[in-house]
Amino acid sequence: MKVPVVCPYCGVGCRLYIEQTPSGYRLDYADDVPGIPNENGSLCPKGNAVLDLLSKDRLRKPLKAKEEGKFVEVSWGEAIKEVAERLREIARDDPNGLMFFGSAKTYNEPNYLVQKLARMLGTNNIDHCARLCHSSTVAGLKAVFGAGAMTNTYRDIERADVIMIWGHNYAETHPVGFRYVIKAKERGARVIVVDPRYTRTAWFSDIFLQLYPGTDIALANGLMHVIIKHGLHDKEFVERRTVGFQELKKTVEKYTPERVEEITGVPAELIEEAAVTFAKAENAVVTWAMGLTQSVHGYDNVRAVATLIAITGHIGKPGNGASPMRGQNNVQGACDLGVLPNVFPGYQAVTDEEKRMFFEEFWGTELSGEVGLTTVEATHEALKGRLKAYYIVGENPVISEANSKNAVKALRRLEFLVVQDIFPTETTRLADIVLPATSMLENEGSLTNTERRVQWSFKAIEPPGEARPDWWIVSEVGKALGFTGSGPKGFNYRSAEDVLREINACTPQYRGITPERLKANLAGIHWPCPSEDHPGTPLLYTERFLTPDGKAHLAAVEHRPPAETPDDEYPLILTTTRYVGHFHTLTMTGRSELLRKRWREPFLEVHPGDARRFGLEDNGWALIETRRGRYAARVKVTKAVKPGVVAIPWHWGANVLTNDVLDPVSKIPDTKACACRVKPVGEVEARRILEELRAEGVVA
Ligand SMILES: Nc1nc2c(c(=O)[nH]1)N[C@H]1C(S)=C(S)[C@@H](COP(=O)(O)OP(=O)(O)OC[C@H]3O[C@@H](n4cnc5c(=O)[nH]c(N)nc54)[C@H](O)[C@@H]3O)O[C@H]1N2
Ligand SMILES: Nc1nc2c(c(=O)[nH]1)N[C@H]1C(S)=C(S)[C@@H](COP(=O)(O)OP(=O)(O)OC[C@H]3O[C@@H](n4cnc5c(=O)[nH]c(N)nc54)[C@H](O)[C@@H]3O)O[C@H]1N2
Ligand code: SF4
Ligand SMILES: [Mo]
User: Which of 75, 119, 586, 646 has its CA 20 to 30 A from that of 512?
Assistant: First the structure.
């Protein structure tokens, strides 16, 4: 029997089938399900390698540390009891001594349960990797449009006449979704790419705006300057559906193409051409990702781009929209279900008395109205000794957090660390208790892709050893903590379906998205879906925005330099990127022999002029240093990067270099621009440096 699952990697949310045969599990393409993002069945290299997750070194039994990194196997009963006792002890003293991490790598149901557990224990200290990712989108879009999600679907991208791709290496990071860009191009659509690197996505561009990292606001303002100067904004839309135009006009007046060229390095004529092309398009979509969001100005970056979309009226109708491409396969769902320090499920603010009273009644306990800590703030607090314990579900901050040496120090300072994962990782190594979870292919549940499409994924594979579903583990901890009330007042669940029914009852956007409906419809349902007879909402804002007055709030924001700019000591800008064949911290793709062979190691991309200046040779080794650390990598001399900029994929541990300075609103760290210096180093020395970092436990 072919079992339908959803790919456990990225936010495109491709479907595939897994079939058990006498010779083992087999992957098959879901080319017979109309309406899904990969209708023709296609998958990318990671999707094609999902069966490698059955790798032999999976976590199979709960583990208890004797000393750092040395574990003994324990029973589930013993592990759960210990976790509950330690959490209870700390919570009794001060619930805000605890920090919880949900996971964009597991289903909606366990995510709902982790935040419920944190909140029932009395703290809103709960967050997840969205903080390092699209937190500036969530905050920035909320300010402009009233809500933080993608406004349209992939089909709208296919229908667009102009697609602007901003700080998003779409072809490598959402490869199957990129098919919609190619289809649009085949129809004659024009593609504008904004990136400091000539990426695989830029190969497909008609207009390429190669800006310096961290200068996005200047560019967006320059585009708006040209549009307003030529009167190409959508006057009727601006009048009827937005507020703040006069102030915006005044602010962008200063951003002449010539001045913007000076700041961004993008030729003035190209700024003119891009602005006119975008504004004149009948239908246009802007997609964006980490190049825009991971900045100390991330919140303002997103507001500037959202404002550009609003003044041209490219929103709220088919073939148009604001498309932040969500990264992890269920990061949208984890945000929707309140794995954030400021909101309950459904983005209901913890500071809103009425919402809090609803959840107090629903869960039957008193709740905190104080906004909790975000991920990187938690690191800073833990370093000061103000946090006592972390419960981490499905994250690997030792490799993924900016300035990772700090993250490791913080984890080592804790009194108690529990990590729930499917593989041993650099983070489980520091844990007191490790809880073995089943992979998403080995249990069932709902998850939400970047288009707000909620899909059900079925259990296709038998889990290894004693690994258990994430929802089961969290509910066992909940019960052991004494939350044994009936219904929503406790953690007595028999299945993921039970949990989804509780989500239906307290999350307005998911009210009509029941397990029965999802199981019967493999293409899923787009939230908001307010009732069981509602078809779901693929396109947002057709009539009004979700701001209190229903209008888009245009943002007039000024360009400011990045947190760190090059100087004599650190003369280059370092940015961090991804490869199509690897996922994040390599815990999953690193176990696929095929992917590992094809994408063997990270390459530092350096412009030929900079290579000459700093004595680097193609395929030789470089030592890269920043104010936070040093790292070694092979060199790729290429004109793909702008002079003055070097780029490296972070999968293997480049976060020893990056800057953990935060955007003041969204609290995202600036992982896309910091100052660095480079020099040649011999292979033996390079490998020694990497070995040293590995021994410290900060690189993969
Ligand atoms: N293969 C693969 N796919 C993935 C992932 C993965 O790890 N591997 N991760 C998933 C996740 S969680 C996410 S969030 C997405 C991320 O998807 P993307 O955001 O597309 O990935 P990145 O390569 O991190 O960054 C995108 C681009 O930003 C550019 N950039 C750097 N600095 C700037 C800047 O200052 N301004 C602008 N405009 N651009 C800049 C970089 O050159 C890079 O090409 O991918 C998802 N898909
Ligand atoms: N320098 C730099 N740093 C970055 C970025 C960047 O562009 N540059 N990007 C940032 C972004 S966008 C993101 S999203 C973060 C990602 O940061 P993380 O979320 O920390 O990275 P992952 O490697 O995806 O970690 C997910 C963990 O979940 C585990 N896992 C997988 N499936 C399951 C499951 O079903 N259950 C459980 N319990 N565990 C599971 C995996 O083995 C893995 O250890 O990194 C951020 N860090
Ligand atoms: S595009 Fe994303 S969801 Fe689709 S197969 Fe690749 S990793 Fe999986
Ligand atoms: Mo992400």
Answer: 119
